[in-house]
Predict the 3D structure of the following.
Amino acid sequence: MALKKKPVTGMKDMMPAEMEIRDYVIGQIKETYRAFGFSSIETPCVEHIENLCSKQGGDNEKLIFKILKRGEKLKIEEAKEEKDVVDGGLRYDLTVPLSRYYANNANELPSPFKALQMGNVWRADRPQRGRFRQFMQCDIDILGEPGNLAEIELILATTTLLGKLDFKNFTIRINDRRILKAMAAYSGFAESDYENVFIILDKMDKIGLDGVAAELEENGYAKGSVEKYLQLFKEITNDVEGVRYCKEKLEGFLADDAAASLEMIITSVESAKEADFCMKFDPTLVRGMSYYTGTIFEISMDEFGGSVGGGGRYDEMIGKFTGQNTPAVGFSIGFERIVMLLLERGYQVPTAAQKKAFLIDKKMPKEGMLKILNLAKAERALGKQVMIVNMKKNKKFQKEQLMEQGYTEIVDCYADNVEQL
């Protein structure tokens, strides 16, 4: 059987030009988030299958790469159900592992705990532009803080980072799951139908208001409820006034603190922001994860045509491990999509070190080689990136390749000129 050169579908090899940008973005992420008080942690890429299949990850639970039991534990011939042969899986996000991590280590961590976690995740998804089966996620989470200061800090930290990466005029869309539920209750939908109604509502940006109405009616919901529900979206504005309208219109269905909290988050972020972006109250924002309990948000960029990050409050997830709910809220940027957009716009890393190359003739004596090695050592001590390579026959093509890699200074080294270097 012939070996295959291409990577597995939905995964990719990283070329040096991309890795330079990836490394730079990772550096900016760590520097920015640490300035906001976040501490780096790491969790294993493999999780217990029970944790991954706990009905908290929405459709992502259908995309798990599952791992067979090993050695004597794997008894395929005796298996009756999947659980008899599977005991682990590759993580599909970082939130479930973080919740397990906090439940296991809470006594040794500060409260509130501000976590920064970066790492690869895996989903058996259909690959497309900006979507892979293996991809890097970057999350910041605040655990143990029930107040909306957590949301404000997460949004400010994330938008500050995007500003440093030269992203402008993007939008933070924000909503609250409690408002979603209050709107559904006000319209007459049964509580058991909320999640299905929200799944249909989540298609609003693709099928529009009329499409949502048609699909709700196709699912058997009363026309009166559907009309009352969609009328709300026609009346609600995408600003603080829209939040205030919800508080007034949904009285009796919505807790006062939900609207007040959302208004405070929006006004606080608008006042304290560093980057060039806008906050938009979006009552159609759903977020797919069923574990969200309160505030939810997404980053929208016109140049991508969709979301490049999102998050929200998930106050009940850690309680699945401990039996006691813990306030928790997180924000994840779409690392792969951010890098893709930077590559597409020809982004140049601003802090790249000056690059210098020494091309050494094959007849270079030992003494000359030692001198070049010491020269390179001295240049590196000054912060330069220095490469030493043997000179090829096609020196012109070799230099062109080096220049494409960013080497702005290329020195030809021969036995008869090494003393002048």
